[in-house]
Amino acid sequence: MSTVQEIESAIERLDDRSLGQLSGWFEDYLAEKWERRFAADADAGKLDQLGAAADRAFEQGKCRPL
Q1: Can you tell me the distance from the alpha carbon of 7 to that of 5, in angstroms, rounded to the nearest whole number?
Q2: pLDDT confidence band for 51 (50 / 70 / 90)
Q3: Nearest 5°: CA angle at 40, between 37 and 43?
């Protein structure tokens, strides 16, 4: 049995309270992981072209207030 299968099996045995706790923890975990990856990509310059395109669109009047 793989680790993923073991985890799935363990999750299926959780009561509602524990499942809610796990769900909250996992949501926070994924958000933090995404934040770290986003920050690393920004630090590496991987978002520079997107930022420049957004600046150009703004300067050209292609944006509108939210």
Answers
A1: 5
A2: very high
A3: 150
66 confidence band (pLDDT: 50, 70, 90): confident
| Letter string b/e over residues 29-62, b meaning 16 or more CB atoms within 10 A of that residue's CB | eeeeeeeeeeeeeeeeeeeeeeeeeeeeeeeeee
Report, as an integer, the average pLDDT of 5-9: 96
Name the DSSP class of 62.
Answer: -
Cβ neighbours of residue 54 under 8 Å, at least 6 residues apart? none
Q: Is pLDDT of 1 > 80?
A: no
Q: Spell out the domain ranges in the chain.
A: 3-59
Q: And the tokens for 14?
A: 């959780």
